[in-house]
């Protein structure tokens, strides 16, 4: 009965996906014709994200990547609160587990579980590639599509592969939930400091600046360097992306560890504390 139900569910989902794909391909939801001109708001963003003209000096984010400029410059407070919501959700998950991961994994042998030597060797190579791609997405996020969240989510694939390939017990010898949360907290602290860094610089000079200020403004001529020689830095955007990557990558890692633990065993640990 159980296998029959699974087959029915799989077939139903497959038919639904095929049906939606056919409807979209045939224009069943209607065709969207691109507008003949760029909207005024989009024109403002395109003109100010990276503009060396003195006319736009005090409104430009000095980043060729408009999305990153919008996320961390024009609407930085929104992004900060979104990151905080994700952090609070992770804290909630950790509070519910009540340290079950450390109690469950403590004392297990380093050689317990895992897949074959061939799979482990390939995984060691792949995780280096994953980390390289993730860092590239992060460090180029102010220049090309990408950014801190995308880079962090990419890097988070590596610990998931390690858990599956080497087992959760061996992975816990390298990174525990508490270590992952600590590294995520460092990332969040870095984001907070990046939001105030220009203000702090201005105060040290006896002047004022804005929170989330990136480049100099009309009434506050302070900001982080936008470029060095021919290398575009994007001011605070590079810092935001870097710390966001740290926060996202290890936030997901902490959740992966919790999700992979046997549910019944975790429940027994939690009930034992009640």
| Overall tally of structural domains | 1
- The span between the termini is 37 Å
Counted beta strands: 2
Structural class: mainly alpha
Nearest-integer average pLDDT: 84
- Gyration radius (Cα, Å) is 24 Å
State the order of secondary-structure elements, H for helix, E for strand.
HHHHHHHHHHEEHH
Show unreliable segments. Answer: none
Beta-strand percentage range = under 5%
Individual helix count: 12
Shape: globular
- Biggest sheet strand order reads 1-2
Share of helical residues = 55-70%
Major sheet details = 2 strands, antiparallel
Would you mind describing this structure in some detail?
There is one protein chain. By secondary structure, the protein is mainly alpha-helical. The protein has one domain. Helices cover 66% and strands 1% of the residues. Helix 4 runs parallel beside helix 11 and helix 6 packs antiparallel against helix 8 (157-166). The longest helix has 28 residues, at 177-204. It is globular, with a radius of gyration of 24 Å. The mean pLDDT is 84.
């Amino acid at each position: 009965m159980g296998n029959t139900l699974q087959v029915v569910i799989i077939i139903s989902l497959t038919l639904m996906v095929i049906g939606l794909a056919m409807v979209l391909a045939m224009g069943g939801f209607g065709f969207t014709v691109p507008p003949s001109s760029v909207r005024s708001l989009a024109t403002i963003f395109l003109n100010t994200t990276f503009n060396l003209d003195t006319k736009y000096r005090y409104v430009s984010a000095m980043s060729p990547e408009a999305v990153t400029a919008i996320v961390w410059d024009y609407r930085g407070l929104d992004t900060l609160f979104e990151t905080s919501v994700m952090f609070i959700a992770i804290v909630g998950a950790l509070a519910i587990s009540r340290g079950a991961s450390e109690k469950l994994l403590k004392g297990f042998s380093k050689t317990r579980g895992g897949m074959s030597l061939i799979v482990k060797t390939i995984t060691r190579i792949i995780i280096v590639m994953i980390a390289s791609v993730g860092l590239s997405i992060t460090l180029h996020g102010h220049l090309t599509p990408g950014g801190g969240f995308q880079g962090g989510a990419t890097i988070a694939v590596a610990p998931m592969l390690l858990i599956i390939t080497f087992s959760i017990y061996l992975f816990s010898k390298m990174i525990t939930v508490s270590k992952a949360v600590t590294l995520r907290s460092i990332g969040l602290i870095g984001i907070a400091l990046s939001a105030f860094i220009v203000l702090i610089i201005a105060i040290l000079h006896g002047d004022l600046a804005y929170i989330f200020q990136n480049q100099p403004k009309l009434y506050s001529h302070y900001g982080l360097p936008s470029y060095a020689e021919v290398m575009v830095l994007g001011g605070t955007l590079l810092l935001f992306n870097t710390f966001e990557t740290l926060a996202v990558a290890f936030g997901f890692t902490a959740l992966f560890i919790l999700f992979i633990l046997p549910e019944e065993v975790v429940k027994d640990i939690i009930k034992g504390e009640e």
